[in-house]
User: Which sequence fits this backbone?
């Protein structure tokens, strides 16, 4: 009996031992061999990777040295509802209609009755104040999702220069595109154990936090006051003359800084989706090359003087026309013909024959390869006409300036180039070259961004960049300022400058009729290019009005009035003192 | 003296010149009690650990609430900045009643 008892007892012990061994082996398998697998599964469930979105950099302008906002970020919300949580649909409808009627998404309210849905968007782009009203109402099932949108307190100001940000938070056109990377910043990352609502908890040693780097805040060289005035005058003149479009560029010739860049027609960057004609997005100042016309003549005279081909006392016999190869080049008006026409007369009467004469002198008496080479050396290599200048705005194009060794770079073309036809250049290139003509000879790289603004408001400015250190000599520059001013004060704009040192040149260029492929006088582009208002010029202004319906020469009747008014306004705005 | 006490006072348990007395507890714990005690201690320690972990986790919620408050204040500050910018916008200033009452100077001159 005892043997049987002992035998059963032993059997039980052995069985329990075996079961114990099975348990231990199973636990060993799960906890040691399969440790990594289960750890990975646990981490996948518990650990969430959350991206920390950076804030897009804001954009500021200046106004007499004070930084003012142009582009800001606004917190907006998406108002949504969970139909399953909503107890009283009418209450929700009443709230949305009262607080966010304009932002209400069409046909969203009936969707609240669909109890199978868990997410219905009721309104988008709800402002902070509206969101506070929703939170105060505290209706179950209604929630807010935060987002950000770009706002433009100044409306359509400098729209083409700024560009806009699309629905994917990507900059389009202008500065928003050119500096998209700097403005976007760098996303951060948070990897941590989270609860079911994805709220990070502080347990665990595997948490990783990389803070987001917000985008840089940019401060522009653009002056808000000057920009607003330029836009106002441009809009008024374009509408008055029923012109197709127009542009105004104001630059600081001593640094290459752009003070204003106005285009009309324009658009509102916060309503970019409403634009039907995509031309409105284009900044014609940098991406619409054209035959600039007579505003190039001061450059030709400067080249002639600087190269030594002519002197200040140069005179020539102006008969109203000149022959170059098989073509006859004429002045716009035959009179005045004068055997002792001087440099001042060339600018005052805008004589094509005068600048062709200078080109001939650069070739030793005739238009030839030497003359073309010299012109190309100055126009292209030194003054950077016909090429991109590297302005920090998206969309710049080079234009066309044909080299003298090409078949198309013949004598007739170069004879046209010296008075602004036969080559396509942008307003930016012409104004930059003109700035070098009046600032002592330095070609500065034009720029729109002054620098980066730190959190404490200080601005780290960038230094002006030089493209050509000495395109012309300072002596030539002094002579050119004198001549350009003489051309203005003895011409159609006598007495308009209140005694200030202002000079400028009109331009009326023909356009090619697309139907015939020939130049036509029916439509022209009127331009005015000038500087002011002291012997050390403080501003260069270039105006362009496309196809105005106005009598007379469009450079004089459409473009020049904008320059005159803007120049006189700038004198007061910049508080310049007269110098004589 | 008790039996236990006197049993302890044997020759082998005493040393010369030392008046020592060993007092043993009258109650001794068996192996099952030991196991229960150990299990209880482990349980208490475990509960303490869980409590600490939970408290640590709750900091995550507190942090989340504070961050939400910061975000709320940030949004409010931004809203005020934008409102300020809109109020100082040139177009608004130009069309304001105060500007309407201003007159442009007919002439600007400079003191010598």
Assistant:
């Amino acid at each position: 009996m005892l043997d049987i008892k002992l035998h059963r007892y032993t059997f039980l012990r052995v069985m329990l031992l075996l079961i114990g061994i099975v348990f231990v082996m199973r636990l060993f398998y799960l906890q040691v061999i399969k440790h990594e697998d289960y750890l990975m599964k646990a981490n996948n469930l518990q650990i969430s990777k959350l991206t920390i979105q950076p804030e897009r950099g804001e954009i500021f302008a200046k106004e007499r040295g004070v930084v003012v906002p142009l582009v800001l970020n606004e917190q907006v919300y998406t108002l949504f509802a969970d139909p399953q949580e909503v107890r009283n649909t009418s209450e929700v409808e009443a709230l949305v209609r009262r607080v966010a009627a304009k932002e209400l998404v069409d046909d969203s309210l009936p969707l609240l009755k669909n109890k199978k849905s868990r997410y219905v968007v009721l309104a988008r782009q709800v402002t902070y104040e509206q969101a506070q009203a929703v939170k105060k109402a505290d209706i179950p099932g209604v929630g807010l999702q935060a987002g950000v949108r770009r706002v433009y307190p100044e409306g359509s100001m400098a729209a083409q220069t700024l560009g806009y940000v699309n629905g994917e938070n990507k900059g389009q056109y202008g500065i928003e595109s050119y500096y998209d990377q700097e403005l976007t910043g760098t996303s951060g990352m948070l990897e941590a154990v989270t609860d079911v609502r994805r709220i990070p908890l502080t347990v665990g040693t595997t948490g990783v936090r990389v803070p987001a780097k917000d985008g840089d805040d940019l401060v522009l060289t653009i002056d808000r006051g000057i920009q607003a005035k330029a836009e106002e005058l441009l809009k008024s003149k374009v509408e008055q003359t029923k012109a197709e479009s127009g542009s105004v560029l104001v630059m600081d010739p001593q640094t290459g800084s752009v003070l204003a860049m106005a285009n009309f027609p324009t658009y509102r960057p916060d309503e970019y989706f409403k634009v039907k004609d995509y031309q409105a997005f284009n900044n014609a100042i940098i991406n619409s090359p054209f035959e600039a016309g007579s505003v190039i003549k001061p450059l030709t005279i400067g080249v002639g003087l600087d190269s030594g081909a002519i002197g200040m006392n140069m005179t020539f016999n102006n008969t109203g026309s000149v022959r170059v190869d098989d073509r006859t080049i004429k002045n716009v008006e035959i009179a005045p013909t004068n055997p002792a026409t001087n440099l001042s007369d060339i600018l005052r009467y805008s004589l094509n024959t005068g600048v062709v004469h200078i080109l001939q002198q650069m070739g030793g008496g005739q238009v030839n390869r030497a003359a073309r080479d010299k012109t190309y050396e100055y126009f292209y290599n030194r003054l950077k006409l016909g090429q991109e200048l590297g302005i920090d705005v998206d969309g710049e194009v080079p234009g066309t300036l044909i080299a003298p060794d090409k078949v198309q770079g013949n004598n007739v073309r170069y004879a046209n180039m010296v008075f602004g036809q036969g080559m396509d250049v942008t307003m930016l290139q012409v104004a930059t070259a003109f700035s070098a003509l009046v600032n002592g000879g330095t070609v500065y790289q034009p720029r729109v961004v002054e620098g980066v603004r730190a959190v404490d408001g200080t601005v780290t400015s960038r230094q002006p960049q030089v493209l050509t250190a000495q395109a012309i000599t300072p002596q030539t520059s002094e002579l050119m300022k004198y001549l350009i001013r003489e051309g203005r004060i003895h011409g159609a704009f006598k007495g308009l400058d209140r005694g200030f040192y202002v000079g400028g040149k009109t331009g009326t260029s023909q356009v090619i009729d697309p139907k015939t492929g020939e130049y036509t006088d029916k439509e022209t582009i009127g331009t005015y290019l000038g500087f002011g208002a002291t012997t050390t010029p403080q501003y260069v202004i270039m105006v362009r009005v496309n196809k105005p319906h106005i009598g007379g020469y469009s450079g004089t009747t459409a473009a020049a009035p904008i320059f005159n008014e803007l120049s006189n306004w700038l004198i007061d705005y910049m508080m310049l003192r007269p110098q004589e | 003296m008790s039996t236990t006490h006197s049993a302890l006072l044997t020759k082998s348990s005493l040393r010369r010149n030392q008046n020592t007395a060993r007092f043993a507890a009258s109650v001794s714990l068996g192996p099952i009690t030991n196991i229960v005690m150990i299990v209880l201690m482990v349980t208490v320690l475990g509960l303490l650990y869980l409590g600490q972990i939970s408290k640590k986790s709750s900091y995550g919620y507190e942090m989340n609430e504070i961050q939400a408050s910061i975000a709320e204040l940030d949004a409010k500050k931004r809203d005020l900045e934008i409102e300020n910018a809109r109020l100082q916008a040139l177009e608004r200033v130009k069309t304001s009643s105060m500007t309407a009452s201003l007159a442009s100077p007919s002439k600007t001159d400079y003191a010598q």
Notes: Chain B touches chain A at residues 53, 56-57, 59-61, 63-64, 71, 74-76, 78-79, 81-82, 85-86, 88-91, 108, 110 (CB under 8 Å). The mean pLDDT of chain B is 79.
